[in-house]
Amino acid sequence: MTKDGKEIRLDQLHDEIKKLNPEILSDLNRMIMLYSQAQIIIGHLDAEALYTHGAMYAQRKQMQAEIIKSTQGTVAEKESTAEIETYELRLAEAEAKSESRKWQNLFKSYDNLIIALRRDERTAIEEYKKANDLYER
After folding, report:
1. Of 43, 34, 28, whose CA–CA distance to 11 is shortest?
2. Which ranges constitute the DSSP H helices of 19-74?
3. Mean pLDDT in the chain?
4. What is the distance between the alpha carbons of residues 124 and 130, in angstroms, rounded to a whole number?
5. What span, in angstroms and rounded, lies between the C-alpha atoms of 70 and 85?
6. Residues 6+ apart with CB under 8 A from 100
7. How far apart are CA 102 and CA 110, in angstroms?
8. What is the pLDDT of residues 72-84, one digit of tens each?
9. Whether the Cβ atoms of residue 92 and residue 45 lie closer than 8 Å to each other
10. Measuring CA to CA, which residue among 56, 58, 53, 80 is closest to residue 67?
11. CA distance 35 to 10
12. For the whole prediction, is pTM greater than 0.85?
């Protein structure tokens, strides 16, 4: 599976984040910015996966309708034939939905991480202020 430009850029952001030290205030600030940039990319990836899921669903429903329309037999026989013949599409649909869920979960995780990093940043700034106040006395 080859990665598209968005996933390559996401990897680049992750590589840059790994090089930063959250103990250094400027690095911490940069991490927050990079995670926020990653969220933008993740949002696009999720949207693409969600679109794929919707398109697969529409394709499956259309195929089921065509099969039911062209098949002879009872309603139950027509529906079971349609279910059997659209099995692969249903699997592809499920895969697309799981891809979307993967990106949604990562987005939410980054949201929580950014909140924690911002809290750390505020704490560090307060500590620097206290230290400055002590030296100014």
Report:
1. 34
2. 25-70
3. 93
4. 10
5. 13
6. 46, 49, 50, 52, 53
7. 12
8. 999 999 999 999 9
9. no
10. 80
11. 10
12. no
